[in-house]
Design goal:
mainly alpha; Hypothetical protein af1432; three-stranded antiparallel beta sheet
């Protein structure tokens, strides 16, 4: 291509020179001698010829340089292809050597490497996930403790003082004979009507009424007190007084239900549910009054719902009604949570309220935040210190079981149950258990207590390991 361009440039130069000579000759023909003109034209042609020869020599040298470069490029390309072939052969030889050394083919080695990378990635991901879960759990536990502590501090509740007996004071011991009546007819009439046991013993100036049904026991108490005020005690008067007391108690139960609804700040409750709720005033659970427990749960649930951003209205309503099934559990078969949920639905309560009532003992799996809040409020109200009473036998048995669970572990020296069974301190032999094992032992004992015992609240497990250095002065 360069040769063609150079030839074109040379031809153009010759033509330009000829045209110049012609123009000069024409211009100078006038008044100039012919010999001088020809000499000048000849000199111009000589100069043009020299320039053409110079251009030809330059083009020849360039063409030779291009041919040399083309040959050099071709030689290098051949050498590069040879080197590429050598590299490919070396790579194949290296691959075969690696396969012989590892006993794996290239495909197998690739799969093994990919699997190793995948396993490492899974391991790293699992570690990150575990770390995030632990951080989330710590934050959640801190948040839960804060919410529960705030709720407990804001609510002042009474201690348990309920029993299954009532005591009626008599003006004198002479009234015991009149209550018994001729051949026991008066006391039989009282027990048959009320369904309550009248215990008349050596207790001075007192009659003990015993029954698990608090409503019946209250009717019997009111009946006996009215009879003592009236002074006329005989079967006919007993029956009349009994029905009068029963009617008065029905009105009183309605008042108790309305008062509970007002204290719990629940509005629009069905009148029948209000009446059934009032009957819980005469029902106890481990010595804790169920109506007071329900009101307390309503306040706790509302506080926690506000903290968590849930529906305080739903939580408060469900917590107040969560144990209403206990008021009719002797009339309807089934767990009181399910009975209460059906009762709430029949009287127009929302499904969210009924579900939270049913789920507070896990008869139904909790599906809402409010249901979990009602569970927590129920456990908190029943598990706080002083909320529920227990017999001396149960108390001693629980302490003994706690000590036995801790004692059966190797390396344990002494065990002490403290704070009414709320804390257990385990002293271990320092030579048999090191510090790391002490931490694991505390966790093992706590897990075994959770699995084997039922208890309200929580039990603190403290493992104590003491190191002693002994020397003697001689």
């Amino acid at each position: 291509m360069e040769l063609v361009i150079a030839a074109a440039v040379l031809a153009a130069g010759i033509i330009a020179a000829a045209l110049t000579v012609g123009r000069n000759g024409t211009a100078r023909s006038a008044g100039v001698p012919v010999g001088a003109q020809r000499a000048e034209q000849k000199a111009e042609l000589v100069r043009s010829t020299e320039r053409s020869h110079s251009l030809e020599r330059s083009l020849d040298s360039r063409a030779a340089e291009l041919e040399r470069r083309a040959a050099e490029l071709e030689r290098r390309e051949v050498a590069l292809q040879a080197e590429r072939a050598d590299v490919a052969a070396l790579r194949q030889e290296q691959t075969r050597a690696l396969e012989r050394a590892s006993g794996l083919s290239a495909g197998q080695a690739k799969q093994a490497l990919l699997k190793e990378i995948e396993d490492q990635a899974r391991h790293d991901a699992a570690r990150v996930i575990r770390q995030v879960e632990e951080e989330t759990k710590r934050d959640a536990e801190r948040r839960v403790r804060s919410i529960l502590s705030v709720a407990m501090q804001r609510l002042a509740a009474s201690h348990a003082a309920e029993t299954t007996v009532s005591v009626v004071q008599l003006p004198s011991d002479d009234m015991k004979g009149r209550i018994i009546g001729r051949e026991g007819r008066n006391i039989r009439a009282l027990e048959n009507l009320t369904g309550v046991d009248f215990i008349i013993d050596d207790t001075p100036n007192a009659v003990v009424l015993s029954a698990f049904d608090g409503v019946r026991r209250e009717i019997a108490r009111m009946t006996l007190e009215k009879l003592l005020q009236d002074g006329r005690i005989h079967p006919a008067r007993i029956e009349e007084t009994y029905y009068q007391s029963k009617s008065e108690l029905d009105d009183h139960i309605v008042e108790l239900g309305e008062k509970a609804v007002f204290e719990a700040e629940v509005h629009g409750l069905d009148p029948e549910l209000t009446k059934i709720l009032g009957r819980l005033r005469f029902r106890t659970s481990y010595g804790q009054n169920v109506l007071a427990h329900s009101i307390e749960c309503a306040h706790l649930a509302a506080m926690m719902a506000h903290e968590l951003g849930a529906s305080a209205k739903t939580a408060r309503r469900a917590a107040l009604l969560h144990d209403i099934g206990k008021a009719v559990s002797h009339e309807i078969e089934g767990p009181h949570a399910l009975v209460g949920g059906d009762l709430a639905r029949r009287h127009g309560e929302p499904e969210a309220v009924a579900h939270a009532m049913e789920a507070h003992h896990n008869e139904v799996e909790p599906q809402t935040v409010e249901a979990v809040i009602v569970q927590a409020a129920d456990a908190l109200s029943g598990g706080r210190p002083g909320a529920r009473g227990e017999s001396l036998e149960q108390y001693v048995k629980r302490l003994r079981d706690l000590e036995q669970i801790a004692t059966r572990h190797p390396g344990v020296d002494k065990v002490y149950a403290m704070q009414a069974g709320r804390e257990i301190r385990v002293i271990v032999a320092p030579g048999a258990i090191d510090d790391d094992r002490a931490v694991a032992l505390a966790r093992e004992i706590a897990r075994e207590i959770e699995q084997e015992l039922e208890f309200p609240g929580q039990i603190k497990v403290t493992v104590i390991r003491e190191s002693r250095a002994v020397d003697y002065a001689k």
